[in-house]
Amino acid sequence: MSTEAISPTKAAAPVVDGLKTVLADSYALMAQTHLAHWNVQGPNFFQLHAAFQSQYEELFIAIDEIAERLRALDVLAPGGLSLLAKASRIEEMPVDALPGKDFVAHLVDAHELIVQHLAELREASEEARDLETQDMIITRLQVHGKTLWMLKSFLKNL
Predict the structure, then answer these.
(1) Most buried of the four, 23, 60, 75, 94, by CB within 10 Å?
(2) DSSP state, residue 41
(3) End-to-end Cα distance, the chain
(4) Contact of 140 with 118, CB cutoff 8 Å
(5) Using CA of residue 142, residue 27, residue 120, residue 122, what is the dihedral sign?
(6) Beta carbons within 8 Å of 53's beta carbon, 6+ residues apart
(7) Contact 26, 66 (CB under 8 A)
(8) Cβ(105)–Cβ(124) under 8 Å?
(9) Other Cβ atoms within 10 Å of 129 Cβ, number
(10) How far is it, in rounded angstroms, from Cα 109 to Cα 1?
(11) Whole-model pTM?
(12) Which residues touch 135 (CB under 8 Å, ≥6 apart)?
């Protein structure tokens, strides 16, 4: 078995497809987190408002890195709200005055969905010997894992 790194022109289809899905899901999660930031109300407003802001700002940077990884693989990055919305599996939350815990619960579900897909993409990257993509995906898994821990901790005993 060759230990040679993957050539950008030979990018494995499962890796490319996985990156495109993670890009769409991350964009949707960023938008949902931003919505939660704008509309959260109640006794935990200040802490949630600040937490959601740091989360959507981190996602914005991550989205750029994911798109740039696609470009490094010589693939055009998908864009546009309607195209990304169609490609995403993240459900939109209603634009309602919800308790903070409902926003958090929705975001937990979205992060868990992304973690599941990232784990699959990590394996596809390993099979393709695309260590650069695998490294990026491992970093994303760490960030989403930490965010899940924080969001789930907020929901304890509510």
Answers:
(1) 23
(2) B
(3) 53
(4) yes
(5) negative
(6) 37
(7) yes
(8) no
(9) 15
(10) 39
(11) 0.90
(12) none
**DSSP string for residues in 71-139:** HHTT-PPP-SHHHHHHH--PPPPPSS--BHHHHHHHHHHHHHHHHHHHHHHHHHHHHTT-HHHHHHHHH
Joined together, the tokens standing for residue 98 give 């919800």
**148 SS3 class:** helix
Class level of CATH domain 9-155: mainly alpha
> Using one digit for the tens of pLDDT, what is the confidence trace for 56-69?
999 999 999 999 99
* pLDDT tens-place string over residues 65-88: 999 999 999 999 999 999 999 999
- Radius of gyration of the chain from its Cα atoms, rounded to whole angstroms: 17
- Cβ–Cβ < 8 Å for 93, 36: yes
CA angle 97, 28, 106 (to 5 degrees): 45
Burial (Cβ within 10 Å: 0-12, 13-18, ≥19) of residue 141:
middle
Q: Using CA atoms, how far apart are residues 123 and 33, in angstroms rounded to an integer?
A: 27
Q: What type of residue sits at position 83?
A: L
Give residue for tokens 């209603």: 94
